[in-house]
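Recap from last week: sequence in, structure out.
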Amino acid sequence: MLDKETLLATHAHRHVPLEGACNVRDLGGLPTADGRRTRQGVLYRSDTLAHLSPADHDRLHALALRAIVDLRTAEERARAPDRLPDSLPLALHNPGFIPRGNVEMFSAINAGQMSAEDAAQAMIGQYRNLTLDHFEEYRTFLSALLAPGQRPLLFHCASGKDRTGIAAAIVLLALDVPREWVIQDYVISNYQRRPIDLFTHGAAGPAVEQVMAADPRYLEAALQSMVEAFGSIDAYLAEAGADREARRHLRDVLLD
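Predicted structure tokens:
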């Protein structure tokens, strides 16, 4: 894995600076196995858009966004609704979900009942649950991306790391972006973190760090669960809405 400075320098051209969001990047500019590149200016990943400034609204206008996919639950959206410019015509898709065991994990960490390794193992379980439990939500995301008039599209959750990270991996793998580059895109979230308000003073720092981390082991666990359950990542992608025809369409719209 690349060190921090090399990683950020390699992907600096993909960073989208916003005042009210910290983990925003273009999924364009990545290589594919056949020597092509993902197209820039079509698909973006982000953390929450609940704190956008007027300058950020201008930036979204410059990106010419046409759709937002919010992977947060209804409760999360009610607590911190996206602050989007009224003047920008956006199609809004809300296939929100939370991984199984998430609430119990946060409760245990806040009670001081989880070590760092316990938290890491819980996160690995979370990622396995995300890939296996949420076909329909990821299918909705892919359907929105493929629909006419929905691009450029931005998708996000709260931190832009977990639910969003797997959504990004699904798209990039469907485009035949090599696994090492998919992992790099994921790990960038380590260095563009948003503090979250779900931890109490009883939460131990090492356990919190494991939850906040974009640890390659987590995404690798998600990919391995695809293989174990479906025989291959390609078979998983087909089940999740990226069958051969959909992948051909994705390549048409997302590759140079």
